[in-house]
Amino acid sequence: MDYERGTATVTSRRQSLGDAFVYLHKMRGAHNADVRGNSGLIRVWRLLADATAYVLLFITVSGIYLWTALRAERTIGLLLIFAGAGTFFGLVYVIAA
C-alpha cells in the first residue's frame, strides 16, 4: 500500500487443500458469520465441527453409562482407554515435532 499516492497492489495466488485447512483452523471467529470467511464452505465446516463436538459428547456420556452398567466389560474398557491415550499422545508428539 502506498498511502501517499492512495494506491495498493493486489496479487492473488492459488492455494492447495492443505492451505485451506490451515486457514480454517487458524482463522479467528469461524463460527461468527459477521467475521471474515463468510462463505458457504465455512458454514458447512461450522456444521461439521459442531456435529463432531455433539457426537463426541454423546459417545462420552453413553460410554460412562455403559461403564457403570456393564461391569464384565471393564477390563477391555481399560485396555481401550490406554490404547486411545497412547494414540492421542502419539498424534500430539507427531504434530508437535
SSE blueprint:
Blueprint: H1 17-26, H2 40-69, H3 74-96
Report on this structure.
With 97 residues, the chain is mostly helical. It has a domain at 17-70. 65% of the residues lie in helices and 0% in strands. The chain is built from three helices and no strands. It has helices at 17-26, 40-69, 74-96.
Number of helices: 3
The number of strands is 0
Straight-line N-to-C gap? 37 Å
Low-confidence stretches: none
Beta-strand percentage?
under 5%
Radius of gyration: 22 Å
Largest sheet report? none
Helix content: 55-70%
Q: Average the pLDDT over all residues and give the rounded result.
A: 82
H/E series: HHH
Shape: elongated
Question: Which oligomeric state applies?
Answer: single chain
Class of secondary structure makeup: mainly alpha
